[in-house]
Model the fold of this input.
Amino acid sequence: MAKEKGIYILFDGIFENMYFDDEENYRSRILQIAAEQGALEKVVVVDSLSKTRNFAGKRLGFLASADREMVDTITNIVLSRRCNPPLTVGPLLSFEGLARKVKALRKNTPNIPLERIVEYAFGEEDYAFSKNSFITMFQEWNAWDTQVLEYYKGNLQIVKALLANSSSGWSPDEAAFNTFVRSAKPGSDINSMDFLAKLMFTLGTYTQVGPCFGISQKTWDNELGIWTRISYACSRRDLIEALTRLVIFTQFYQEKNFGDPNKFPVLQMRFDKQI
Done:
């Protein structure tokens, strides 16, 4: 349909290569389908290093498309509007893109030597690094890629162990970095924003709650409950400390009816009105 109607498909690939099942990584189904349909030029991939390289806050990202004219237009806009043009981070993003390409090729052709795959991947393009230096960097990059997913998997197990008795719901955790847990069941006296604010101001721990990710806060509070997002891409010491605070606060919030406006001041603010 995209090809026939001239529609662009915007694909957010930030978590695409962070599956715990490595067979799912670097095998983009969206791009495979688009290639089979001859519609790659209608797919625009938006990605970043925020999650895969744990560079959240650095705002290092990229856009990719087979539509060369569109890419050139966007590049010109970026160059004209920013003081730090892509040239400043270009080599890093070029390496990241090439490394992903090589890893995907190795998955499909495991018996071909790495040197031959790199030779093919480089093609006629010019890069800021040689093929030999790329191979060295790629091996380090690939080792880190494997180790970090194992680290995240271990952190997720810690999250589930520490919150097992205080949470009543979990998101399906197929990929890394964040998980979503239900800290309070739905009810008429539930207020997600009040829970969020009191957790932050009483224990200095910040999270994000369900309404931040869509659907009205009324639906979350009355039908789904208070769901909190937990990022476990951090040191285990910090993670355990934050989870301990969350457990203590969740128990106090429920046992003492901390969200009851007849007993305590309640933040009368709804996320729906802030967007």
Observations:
- The chain has a mean pLDDT of 87.
